[in-house]
Specification:
Strands 3-2-1-4-5-7-6 form a seven-stranded mixed sheet, sandwiched between helices. The protein is built from five helices and seven strands. It is α/β, with parallel strands linked by helices and 188 residues long.
Length: 188
């Protein structure tokens, strides 16, 4: 299972590198070594473990982190710091991240507006948000917030972030999603 997820996460890293116009593997590795990265809602297989190279610093935040540890669900984390905390109250200083990754998390948090405010707070000026979220018509037990692309855009603009690039594609992380939203946003 770890190998399958590692391959999937590696593909996501390649996608991000393409969006950042990092065409050579050496460019991507150099960018990672210079980047302070934070992942929100990392789950038991953090994106920040994907691909070759290391980050300048890497922190994963998930309210279930202690449970993942206790059940032995986490792979070898290396230098990745894994914090048990919610997206609405991230225990990190302001402007500490050059990249925030939020993959299939925003529709699961208690307060998406507070979460995007925290993302904005921890992003350094010029920092980027790599966001993936399912688009759906209605909320359900596992997804207490239903998002349209317009609602996501409005919420991130309200958090004073600027859209760099976005893609809306069929399906999402959940089979019940109408579409998947992937975007790169930036704090100016």
């Amino acid at each position: 299972m770890h190998e399958v997820l590692a391959r999937w996460l590696s593909e996501r890293m390649a996608d991000l590198a393409e969006w950042l116009n990092l065409t050579e593997a050496s460019e991507c590795d150099a960018w990672r070594r210079a980047t302070r990265a934070v992942e929100i809602g990392a789950g038991p297989h953090p994106f920040l473990l994907s691909g070759a190279g290391s980050w300048r610093s890497a922190v994963a935040v998930d309210p279930l982190a202690d449970g993942y540890r206790a059940e032995g669900l986490l792979p070898e984390l290396g230098p990745l710091i894994y914090l048990a905390a919610s997206a609405e109250d991230i225990p990190l200083p302001a402007e500490c991240a050059d990249l925030v990754v939020c993959d299939n998390c925003l529709d699961h948090v208690d307060d998406p507006g507070a979460a995007t405010g925290e993302i904005r707070r921890i992003l350094a000026p010029g920092g980027r948000l790599w966001l993936m979220v399912d688009l759906r018509d209605s909320a359900d037990e596992l997804h207490p917030h239903a998002f349209t692309a317009d609602r996501v855009r409005e919420m991130l603009r309200d958090a004073d972030l600027t859209l760099v690039k976005e893609r809306i594609g069929p399906g999402g992380a959940d089979p019940g999603a109408a579409a998947g939203y992937r975007a790169l946003w930036q704090r100016l």
